[in-house]
Design brief:
Length: 896
């Protein structure tokens, strides 16, 4: 009995080891270890202390095959009072679960030993030395034998693991006691772990509370920020775009949308922010037929639907939201009890969970704010719903503000339009005055039309302005147009209408004598498609792309001259009275401008006639002067040539005889000298005085020089005869090079260096020219005029103080284009300024100083080359860079 009731120490002594060895023979060691390992593994596997104890009491009772296994927990703060909190008991025995015990003698008999980790094994309660109170407790639970192992949590006695045998006493084996001890130790470890986990959970809960408080603060801040952003915008579009994007980002949702009700309670999604990869409820038109079909099947009940475009919300005037319901929350559509058809609708929208908040504009339901979670279900938090209600409230405030702002803007727009009308009226009055002034200033009808159409289009801000002119037979044409960019000009449209509308319209105006326009009527059409108008006009106007127009008549005096029209394309236009008045005033001023232009045209015509008459007189005068000049010059040259020719012919003819006689006399003298070598004193004196030897040497030279001079005079006479061409009547083929050379010979005295002057080098670049049929004397006159001008330019450049290193004149001739002779005369003189170059061929215009020329040379040259010979003459020059005259003469051309 004593051995059975002994308190077993935690560390087995040698006797116990021997007893344990003996018992090992009765139990299979492998099975025991396997069973123990299984229980321990299941204890370690679980982190929940409740699960651990339930598993332990069940499996320990099965392994030890006892009647009850229970866990008793102490409450030290109550003086070692405790209760059974876990048990596994046979069906025939009463349960100790929940029984509370308080043993007065527990502290004295067992507490200290249990705290030391000792196990108490009792084979028979009636054979153990224990207090009566302890025996009474065991009897209460029908215990006949037991093992009690302490459960130590850290250093404290937490409770007891109790193994009860109720049917009879039981001799406990050492392996069973060791088994219970190991189980108790692992339960103690599990208790300690559970306590640690409890502390961790507590800390986690505290941390979660702190995070919750922080999250609440963040939500409050977020609400404030979101509300501030909403208030920053004044237009609803920006507000809703910003709100949906911000809410989706803050809530980490897949979609945030705003649904707006129409006045008839139908509605549609108007704004949306959707994550990538999900369809748009606004743009996905392909979903509408399938959605509407499914929605119509679900209209029987209010299931807290999201704001879809359906007839239910329309029929029920907003559903539950129309009955002042603020929000609806769905964490998972598949566990919300929705009907299959409604789930199909939500699946079409890819929604798995949602929150819907009503948006009120004052007291009226305006729309709904919907937040969707598509990828998964979601447990919506209260602070999230609260946040959405706050945003919805602010959106309602924004709606009211926007409505107020809209009213203010409407009023402001009305005031602005009134002010704009007044401003435009003043501007048009000013512009009208300016346009009228421009019309009156201009005397050119094309300029008047271009200015008027452009100004009218700008003032009226129209697409097209045209001016139509009537012909004498009543038909007409468009003569001016101002067109905005992007439209087809009327001159390209009219040819296409030659057999259709334009022809009919033109015939109509012709047959009706311009219709009512002849009576001063103005035609105002706001919309051609809402006017009972003739088909021809519609066809023409459609091609002109006109939708609305004004046409006013233009009178030249009492006669209808044409029409002024302003067109508005694409859309109708309500023409204002001041706009019509503006166009009528412009039409009136165009009539005045036409009268002025007609008077100007008459004046210009008379001026042109006078100018032509003056020009003819000047030409006649210049021709008379030139004819008289050339006649006088020809006669003078011919007379001089004749007078010189007679004596020079006598002199040149006798030079041969004088030379012959002189030679004979010198032969006779030489013969005398040979026959009479001894001279008398008188002869010697006379020979010395006469310098006979010098005379004999110099006299032949004198005769040779006289002969050369006579030949030179003869050539000069020939050049004068060639230049004057008095012996040649009419036109005939001539050698132009001879005429140029004769002219140069006459001007030789100006080309040679004079006192304090310089020589002018003439460079000839003659080509192979055939005889040219022309007036020879007149062509020589052209060469004389141009070469004289070139020499004058070189001399003027020298007299002005500018140094000319190599003054030159180039004369180049060639055949061009197979039937034209080109003669170029170029100098490197002072050149002709551009402003004078255009007038050098005018009669009596000269660039020379007064007294140096009368301005007829180049004018006469122009007449000779262009009018007489059908050629061309032009000047190429720059001031300070010389001058070049190009003379072109046709080779085979009948000369006038």
């Amino acid at each position: 009995m004593e051995n059975a009731s002994k308190i077993q120490p935690t560390q087995a002594n040698s006797e116990q080891q021997e007893s344990l060895s003996d018992m090992t023979f009765s139990l299979h060691q492998n099975e025991q270890q396997k069973a123990l390992s299984g229980v321990i593994a299941r204890i370690r596997k679980s982190l929940d202390i409740d699960t651990i104890f339930k598993i332990t009491v069940t499996e320990v009772r099965q392994l030890l095959k006892t009647d009850r296994v229970s866990v008793f927990r102490f409450y030290p703060e109550l003086g070692w009072e405790g209760e059974f909190i876990y048990e596994d008991v046979g069906a025939e025995w009463g349960s100790a679960l929940g029984a509370k015990l308080h043993d007065q003698c527990f502290t004295e008999d067992f507490a200290e030993k249990y705290q030391q980790g000792r196990i108490k094994a009792i084979a028979n309660i009636y054979q153990v030395n224990a207090s009566n109170c302890y025996i009474q407790i065991l009897e209460r639970f029908q215990v006949r034998a037991n093992i009690t192992a302490p459960l130590i949590k850290g250093k404290d006695l937490w409770g007891l693991l109790c193994i009860h045998q109720c049917s009879s006493p039981h001799q406990w084996e050492a392996s069973q006691i060791e088994f219970v001890q190991l189980i108790a130790e692992h339960l103690g470890v599990a208790l300690q772990q559970a306590d640690y986990l409890e502390q961790v959970k507590l800390q986690s809960a505290q941390l979660a509370q702190a995070k919750a408080r922080e999250k609440t603060a963040v939500w409050q801040k977020t609400i404030a920020i979101t509300i501030e952003k909403i208030r920053q915008f004044l237009d609803l579009e920006s507000i809703f775009h910003t709100s949906t994007a911000e809410l989706r980002q803050m809530l980490n949702a897949d979609r945030v949308a705003i649904y707006r009700f129409n006045p008839d309670w139908s509605g549609e999604f108007v704004f949306e922010s959707v994550a990538e990869g999900w369809i748009s409820l606004i743009d996905e038109k392909s979903l509408r037929p399938e959605l509407n079909e499914n929605v119509s099947e679900c209209n029987a009940k209010d299931l807290g639907k999201p704001p879809v475009t359906d007839t239910y919300l329309q029929d029920t005037k907003g559903g539950s939201f129309g009955r002042c319901e603020v929000y609806r929350v769905c964490n998972d559509i598949y566990s919300a009890g929705f009907s299959d058809c409604y789930i199909n609708i939500l699946e079409i929208y890819q929604a798995r969970a949602y929150v819907i908040i009503a948006i009120y504009d004052g007291q009226n339901l305006w729309g709904l704010l919907a937040v969707y979670q598509n990828a998964r279900s979601r447990d919506w938090q209260k602070d999230e719903v609260y946040f959405l209600t706050q945003v919805s409230t602010q959106l309602g405030v924004a709606l009211q503000q926007a409505e107020s702002l809209k009213q203010v803007q409407i009023q402001a727009q009305k005031l602005a339009k009134a002010a704009e009308r007044e401003r435009k009226a003043a501007q048009r009055e000013k512009a009208l005055a300016a346009t009228v002034e421009k019309i009156r200033q201009s005397l050119d009808i094309d300029t008047i039309f271009a200015t008027s159409t452009e100004e009218v289009r700008r003032l009226l801000e129209v697409d097209r302005v045209t001016i139509y002119r009537f012909r004498a037979d009543g038909s007409g044409e468009f003569v001016a147009e101002s067109l905005a960019p992007g439209w087809t000009p009327v001159k390209e449209i009219v040819p296409a209408m030659s057999t259709t509308g334009y022809a009919y319209a033109d015939d109509y105006l012709q047959q009706t004598q311009a219709g009512d326009f002849a009576n001063g009527k103005t035609l105002i059409i706001k919309d051609i498609y809402s006017t009972d108008y003739s088909i021809p006009y519609i066809a023409l106007l459609q091609l002109m792309e006109a939708r609305s127009y004004i046409i006013v008549p233009i009178f030249q005096g009492e006669k209808l001259w044409g029409l002024l029209a302003a067109y508005q394309n694409i859309k109708p236009r309500d023409w204002q009275e001041d706009e019509v008045d503006l166009l009528m005033q412009i039409g009136t001023q165009l009539g005045v401008g036409l009268q002025q232009a007609e008077l100007l045209e008459q004046t210009q015509r008379q001026k042109e006639e006078l100018t032509q008459t003056l020009k003819e007189l000047q030409n006649t005068q210049s021709q008379l002067i030139q004819s008289e000049k050339m006649a006088g010059l020809g006669q003078l040259v011919a007379g001089v040539a004749h007078e010189i020719n007679n004596p020079i012919s006598f002199i040149y003819g006798n030079m041969t005889y004088v030379t012959e006689h002189t030679e004979n006399l010198f032969k006779l003298l030489h013969l005398y000298q040979k026959q009479y070598p001894k001279l008398t004193g008188e002869i010697e004196e006379q020979a010395a005085a006469l310098d006979l030897y010098f005379i004999a040497d110099d006299l032949p030279k004198i005769l040779t020089s006289m002969k050369m001079g006579a030949e030179r005079i003869s050539q000069l006479v020939l050049s004068l005869r060639i230049f004057s061409r008095l012996d040649e009547a009419g036109i005939k083929p001539i050698n132009l090079h001879e005429g140029i050379d004769s002219t140069l010979l006459i001007l030789q005295h100006r080309l040679q260096p004079q006192t304090n002057s310089f020589a002018i080098e003439v460079i000839k670049q003659y080509g192979e020219l055939p005889p040219v049929v022309c007036y020879a004397a007149q062509m020589n006159q052209v060469f004389m005029n141009i070469l004289n001008n070139a020499i004058d330019a070189l001399e003027n450049l020298a007299t002005s103080g500018k140094i000319i290193e190599n003054p030159k004149i180039w004369i180049r001739t060639e055949v061009i284009e197979e039937n034209t002779i080109l003669i170029c005369i170029t100098d490197n003189g002072c050149g002709i300024p551009e402003m004078m170059r255009s007038r050098i061929f005018e009669p009596f215009f000269t660039t020379k100083q007064p007294g140096q020329g009368i301005g007829l040379g180049l004018s006469i040259s122009y007449q000779i080359i262009v009018e007489k010979h059908g050629g061309n003459i032009k000047c190429v020059s720059e001031a300070g860079k010389g001058c070049e005259f190009w003379i072109e003469i046709p080779m085979k051309r009948t000369v006038s």
